[in-house]
Amino acid sequence: MHIKRATFSELDAAAPLFDAYRQFYGQRSDVAAARAFLDERLRRDESVIFLAVEDKELGEALGFTQLYPSFSSVSLKRLWILNDLFVGPNVRRGGVGRRLLDRAREWAIETGAKGLVLATAVDNSKARALYESCGWKQDDEFQHYHLFV
Q1: Could you give the CA distance from residue 72 to residue 21 in angstroms, rounded to a whole number?
Q2: For FRET with 145, which of 2, 13, 23, 58 sits at 20 to 30 Å CA-CA?
Q3: Is this prediction's pTM over 0.90?
Q4: CA-to-CA distance for 35 and 14, rounded, in angstroms?
């Protein structure tokens, strides 16, 4: 398995995984829209996508993570939002998610970031167990709020 930063040439491999990720969260399948969304994020340099593949020559895409940049005003540093993490059902529990999380952590270090943040569904116990086993800590200092418009 190889983890690589996705470029435009990997969009066709990443789009079905991104579509499956959205379906996991109750959205209807639309691979073309998923691909267009990822294409726009890359074109605008608005996200970093890491893709887990069978080998360096791309092979089958096994999973992905997508990071969005943010900033910490208090620490005066970059912060990365790990917004998406998905591993294909046929390769789960094989270390793909862990490798993607490790690569995201390495990316934060490479970019001099303060760290990474993420949110997951309260009932997603498998993902929560993975995050915690990789050293992620649940926030007990701040209460988070949302305003959807």
Answers
A1: 28
A2: 23
A3: yes
A4: 8
Question: What is the phi-psi region of residue 136: left when phi exceeds 0, alpha when psi lies from -120 to 50, beta otherwise?
Answer: beta
Helix, strand, coil % over all residues of the chain, rounded to 5: 40, 25, 40
Length of the chain: 149
Q: Give the single-character DSSP code of 95.
A: S
Task: Decide if 80 contacts 68 (C-beta within 8 A).
Answer: yes
Query: Within 13 Å of residue 32, how many CA atoms lie on the same side as its CB?
Result: 0
Looking at every residue in the chain, the average pLDDT score rounds to 93
Rounded to a whole number of angstroms, the distance between the first and last alpha carbons of the chain is 40
Residue of higher predicted confidence among 61 and 107 = 107
Please state, as a whole number, how many other Cβ atoms lie within 10 Å of the Cβ of residue 145. 5
Question: Quick one: which of 28, 115, 112, 27 has its CA closest to 67?
Answer: 115
Rg (CA), the chain: 15
CA atoms of 79 and 75, how far apart (whole Å): 10
Assess whether pLDDT exceeds 70 at residue 85.
Answer: yes
